[in-house]
Amino acid sequence: MLASMPRELPPSCRELAEFQCGVLTRGQALEGGLSPDAVFRLVRSSRWQPLQRGVYAVVPGAAFSGAPFSAAPTREAMLWAMLQRAGRDAVLSHQTAAELYRLSDRPSSLVHLTIPPDRHIATIPGTVIHRSGRVPISRHPSLLPPRTRIEETVLDLAGQATVFDDAFNWACAACQRRLTTADRLLTAMRLRKKMRWRAELTAALAEIGDGAHSMLEYRYVRQVERPHRLPRADRQARVVRGGRSSYRDNLYADYLLCVELDGRSAHPDDRRWQDIHRDNAAAVDGLLTLRYNWADVTQHPCETALEIGAVLQQRGWAGALRRCGPACAIPR
Question: Strands 91-92, 55-57: parallel, antiparallel or unpaired by DSSP?
């Protein structure tokens, strides 16, 4: 009878369930000492809650007593359940790994799993199954639930991108949030035989490592500054005034000129006034600020370079602008 059964899980099952955020498979329960009949009655009495076929949410300390299991499973429990359903060597990857690393700001609507290429499993509702022969080297050695390393996650997402801007944004966000570095991403990319956007990402990671924090900053370097032979600015330059630090997108320190880039279509009023006050304070110290938006950089890069060059020359730059092509707006 159920009343005569133990009130707690066997120690090995309890430890495993705690390790897996309250998740246990039928196979694990049987290996831990429970009988098939005990598992059947626990599920039938709702003391174990089915999450996937043969995978259950359990209460490790009171599996055989008390009220039926009614609490909603946690996000981590659901991820563990899908991993157990997928079987050995499965890891969370792509958008789901990005969620766990907080590279993405919201949970992925579908759970992404990567399994070895020789594995064949039935469809798991709510998941996207990827196959890769690199699972053993791409898996993080210690983090749980099992997931791909951050560098592998970034490159998986970049490789999925249909436009380069999206690939860049994944790499840039990972570096900006200090989850990895441009050098580590470059090293991981060299280990891949096939990689979409390889040439573009290699060039972009050099700029990210140099301080570019957004696609707009990257485009500024590649479309405004470098093609027109402007002097090289310091990226994300730290400026201290009155004991307080601020960071400038592009600082031409020798010429007391700052170029700020804003990719937003509009500023909230409070942020706009913060920028104005910061520019006013910089002007007191002789630092001139020029501001440009997405259209200035991407649609009118030559005109933007011409304006910046003129200010730099007024402030002592002895160089000369270079035309970037036959249609360049810079005079011959």
Answer: unpaired
pLDDT in tens, 73-91: 899 999 999 999 999 899 9
In 32-163, where does DSSP find H-type helix? 36-44, 75-86, 94-101, 135-138, 150-160
Which residues are CB-contacts of 67 (< 8 A; sequence separation ≥ 6)? Answer: none
Residue-wise pLDDT tens digits, 143-199: 999 999 999 999 999 999 999 999 999 999 999 999 999 999 999 999 999 999 999
Task: Give me the half-sphere count of Cα atoms (radius 13 Å) on the Cβ side of residue 64.
Answer: 17
Give me the number of domains the chain comprises: 3
Domain of residue 54, residue span = 2-72
d(CA 134, CA 164): 24
R_g of the chain, CA atoms, integer Å: 28
Does residue 65 share a domain with residue 34?
yes
Query: Is position 230 within any domain?
Result: yes
Which two structure tokens, joined as six digits, stand for 168? Answer: 């860049």
* Pairing mode of beta strands 127-131, 234-241: unpaired
Amino acid identity at 86: A
**How far apart (Å, rounded) are the C-alpha atoms in residues 317 and 291?**
20
pTM across the whole model: 0.82
Question: Which amino acid appears at position 74 of this protein?
Answer: T
Please give the structure tokens belonging to residue 304.
Answer: 């933007």
Cα distances from 102 to residues 6, 189, 195, in angstroms, run 41, 21, 24
